[in-house]
Design goal:
4 strands, alpha+beta, globular, single chain, four-stranded antiparallel sheet, Muramoyl-pentapeptide Carboxypeptidase, domain 2, binds zinc ion, disordered N terminus
């Protein structure tokens, strides 16, 4: 099949010519064609589509506060820079045109970005680090981003010490690493994102993120 700009592409790519020229500011502004394309990118990376829970889950919040206090007692500082995040905020992240923002996809918003293969490449690159809107675990209110999303921090002595503390202690409070980097599970390894699953032995009620999945 040949699209209007003369590139031979599988039919998978054809619908995205419509609606790509406009950068959405909110979830509802994403055109159906655009969303269909993003959904395919998300599924290709193994992300799940989540309900917007509307709040930081109270059990996750309580466990988080306990974990912060325990860490502080061992001279480890944990500070959340993101917890619950609505769809519209994820739109801002995923469609960001700031060149420094996890590898720009800014070409998408320029007229010369008519090369659909390049557009797909840029979207996939973005999805390694930022979940497409609707596909972020932050929508569930069960994850926290801690301290920094900069690799340089996690490679520093403080960052390494903090990560080691988390690996060893977070499970006591019902938290586990959100993205391990395993293939087909969404983003690459994110040292900063921790997901509440609960730990009934320690009084943290189990919560299944699967219950937040929406087809
Ligand atoms: Zn995160």
């Amino acid at each position: 099949m040949v699209n209007p700009i003369g590139l031979s592409l599988p039919s998978f790519f054809l619908p995205i010519a419509v609606g790509l020229g406009v950068r959405p500011a909110t979830y509802s502004q994403i055109s159906a064609e655009h969303r269909d394309f993003i959904d395919k990118i998300a599924k290709a990376r193994g992300y799940q589509h989540y309900k917007d829970a509307g709040r930081f889950h109270p059990d996750a919040r309580k466990a988080f506060n306990d974990m912060v206090a325990a860490a502080k007692g061992e001279k480890i500082t944990l500070a959340a820079f993101s917890t619950y995040r609505p769809y519209d905020q994820q739109v801002q992240y995923y469609f960001s045109d700031r060149p420094t923002d996890h590898g720009a996809i800014r070409k998408i918003w320029q007229p010369e970005a008519e090369d659909l293969a390049e557009i797909k490449r840029q979207y996939l690159a973005r999805a390694e680090m930022v979940a497409p809107p609707g596909y972020s675990k932050h929508h569930t209110g069960l994850v926290v981003d801690l301290n920094s999303d900069k690799e340089s921090y996690w490679e520093s002595d403080t960052g390494k010490k903090t990560f080691q503390w988390l690996v060893k202690n977070a499970p006591r409070f019902g938290y586990q690493l959100s993205y391990s980097g395993a293939q087909g599970t969404g983003a690459v390894l994110e040292n900063w994102e921790w997901q509440y699953v609960g730990n009934s032995k320690n009084g943290y009620p189990p919560v299944k993120i699967e219950d937040f999945i929406e087809p």
